[in-house]
Amino acid sequence: MVTVKELMSCELYTLKPTDTLHQARDLMLKKAIRHIPIVDKQGQFVGLLTKHDVLAAGVSALAEINTQERDELESSIPISEIMIADVLVAQEDTPLLEAARSMLKQKQGCLPVFRGHQLLGILTEADFVKLALYLMENMPQDEKNTEPQ
């Protein structure tokens, strides 16, 4: 049985609830990520911030303000005001199929992954795309050339 631990991303970039929308946008751009686990001062998981949340809360590029003004405005918005606190999570030994079904059903783009109460990693849609590519690239040649009926 394949588990979440075998596919999850272990390189985590986290922020604190007191960090700002500007810091979140900057981190997402610099690290090319779409999900940020939010942890408290003790390192305990308290929520999740997604690219969608950042875009919804941010100042539109169409607004008639300059970049500096936008950055100042977004620096005044703490993540605690826009993060998702009620997040579907998985344990490291959760079967991958179960995790995929949960993500699809809940329309959640990622699952923070835990060992007990310790955040270990994150399972994202991108991890499933990587798996699909691997499986397609490694399928027997005759199956690759077969068109669906």
Helix-strand layout with pairing:
Layout: H1 21-31, E1 35-39, E2 45-50, H2 51-57, H3 67-74, E3 90-91, H4 96-106, E4 110-115, E5 118-124, H5 125-137, H6 141-144
Parallel strand pairs: 3-4
Antiparallel strand pairs: 1-2, 4-5
Gross geometry = globular
Assign the CATH architecture: Roll
Overall pLDDT score: 90
Q: In angstroms, what separates the terminal alpha carbons? A: 30 Å
At the first level of CATH, the class is Alpha Beta
Number of domains: 1
Largest sheet: number of strands, sense, barrel closure: 3 strands, mixed
Radius of gyration: 18 Å
Brief overview:
By secondary structure, the chain is an alpha+beta fold. Helix content is 36%, strand content 17%.
Detailed description of the structure:
By secondary structure, the chain is an alpha+beta fold. The chain has a single domain (4-139), classed as Roll (CBS-domain), CATH 3.10.580. It has 6 helices and 5 strands. It has a 3-stranded mixed sheet with strand order 3-4-5. Strands 1-2 form a two-stranded antiparallel sheet. Strand 1 and strand 2 form a beta hairpin. The longest helix is centred in the last third of the chain and has 13 residues, at 125-137. The two termini are 30 Å apart. The relative contact order is 0.20.
